[in-house]
Write a structure and sequence with these properties.
Blueprint lengths: L5 H7 L5 H14 L3 H7 L5 H12 L13 H4 L4 H7 L1 E9 L2 E9 L5 H11 L3 E5 L2 H12 L22 E2 L2 E2 L1
Parallel strand pairs: 2-3
Antiparallel strand pairs: 1-2, 4-5
Helix pairs in contact: 2-3, 3-4
Length: 174
């Protein structure tokens, strides 16, 4: 099956004009960005329209995480380190009868097969990618992990006060 280029999809859908597509291609060549990023950066198309077309092109659903809170049990299925490094975010766990999985993971790049494999290996479940903007994924990561690190440090248990300390020099009491 031949994949229709993203710019052509947006042109055929009436989101951009032929001259806007040519301008975005020039921008892409000059700055080394992807065509969708160029179209958004130039203000020719909204990020949501571009992501919707990209999802259609790749056969991957497009989601907007927005301000939704994902249950902690789902987020904790993938280690925070992998979530941050791969810019992925678990959004749902599909259950089929008694069997769990797949884990639905929002990604900015559904073609990152290594990242998806790493997530699947870490959580022990099949992974189904859904497309989201990188900014949306990063906001969800920050929102769900805030306070776990910087804002609200966890208390530590200290031993009871042993009283004044004595200096010890080479095994002798000073």
């Amino acid at each position: 099956m031949v994949r229709v280029p993203l710019g052509r999809l947006l042109l055929e859908a009436g989101h951009i004009s032929e001259s806007q597509l040519r301008s975005a291609i020039s921008h892409q060549d000059r700055w080394g960005s992807r065509i969708g990023e160029s179209l958004v950066a130039l203000g020719y198309v909204s990020e949501q329209a571009m992501l919707s077309a990209l999802g259609h092109q790749l056969g991957v659903p497009h989601v907007v995480i927005g301000d939704r809170r994902i249950p902690r049990a789902i987020v904790q299925l993938v280690p925070e380190q992998i979530i941050r490094r791969r810019h992925v975010f678990p959004v749902a766990l599909v259950t089929q009868g008694r069997r769990s999985g797949p884990l639905v993971v929002a990604v900015a790049d559904p073609a990152d097969v290594q990242g998806l494999d790493e997530v699947a290996f870490a959580c022990g479940l099949d992974v189904k990618p859904v497309l989201a903007s990188r900014a949306d994924v990063d906001r969800a990561i920050d929102r769900h992990f805030e306070g776990l690190r910087d804002g609200n440090p966890q208390p530590i248990d200290l031993p009871p006060d042993p009283g004044p300390m004595r200096l010890v020099a080479r095994g002798r009491k000073a």
